[in-house]
Amino acid sequence: MWLHKNKLQVTSCRKEELRCLKRSDLIETLAKNLPTQSVRFGCQIVAVESDPITSFPVLYTNDGATIKAKVLIGCDGSNSVVAKSLGLQAPKVFPISAVRGFTSYSDGHSFDSHFIRLRGDGVLLGRLPVDEKLVYWFVGRLSPSQDSDVRKVPELIKEFTLETIREFPPEIIEMVKHCDSSSLSLTHIWYRAPWHLLFANFWQGTMTVAGDAMHVMGPFLGQGGSAGLEDAIVLARCLSQEMPMGPEGAISDRELCRRIGRAMSKYVNERRLRVMRLSAQSYLTGSVVVASSWVKKLVCLAILVVFLGGGLLSHTNYDCGSL
């Protein structure tokens, strides 16, 4: 549901499914299905290089450890050390700040399953239920200079947000006022330029990237996390297809390196077009929001029409295949 100046536009999801998850729940669920001690907490990669003899990656961490790996998949976010080692250009920032938070209704809410977006003067608010009691919401606006002063203090973020939405309906103001302060975050919106994805070198040897490290994009489509899961499935499938162990058993490091490289090449070729389309659509949508010139807005909208030829949610009609 899109509401602007008392005009309501409703889009049915039809066969598509719109579901909101807490990121922490998703990560914990995935982590619980890993073998014990698979995850090393409090560890950050600070540098990566190739072993001069085997060509396999060598990692250096912030706690002084040196780790030799056969395969390195950089999932280290928008400020990825692995992406930098591959020579990818640094992400850019939209002149937009976003506040995100959760509000819990002890007696339940009456919002059904609607994802509603309300637009004010230079402000966009979205609300989407997680379950019958918990609601996720966000507020986006052009970045003011005082952002950096409040982003680390939850109560200041709440005050800043309430001031931003003071002209919004009372139920929206109450939702923000009674939110879980510990869930609040205030961040800038980062993106990797779509034209950089066209020829970017996403793999080298036995090293590649996935998720935001590969294709960080604005949240305007709500597809960043989904695209990361698609990456994981495609990469796992490509690796498994190239790594069948025959009756001869172990293979040499040279043969292993060759097989992994071939799998990563297939992975990148399969993902490049998909992430380019998502990134371009997200970039254009964000540009419509921030553009001060009506000419630029119209140009971006015209290009978006091409992307949206299959409908507003056509980008969700995508099947990355199975493992």
UniProtKB/TrEMBL annotation:
Belongs to the 3-hydroxybenzoate 6-hydroxylase family. One of its GO terms (molecular function) is monooxygenase activity. Pfam families: FAD_binding_3 (PF01494). PANTHER family: FAD/NAD(P)-BINDING OXIDOREDUCTASE FAMILY PROTEIN, MONOOXYGENASE 1. It comes from the Eukaryota. Keywords: Monooxygenase, Oxidoreductase. The gene is LOC103704863. InterPro entries: FAD-bd, FAD/NAD-bd_sf, MOase. Residues 31-241 form the FAD-binding domain. This is Monooxygenase 1-like isoform X3.
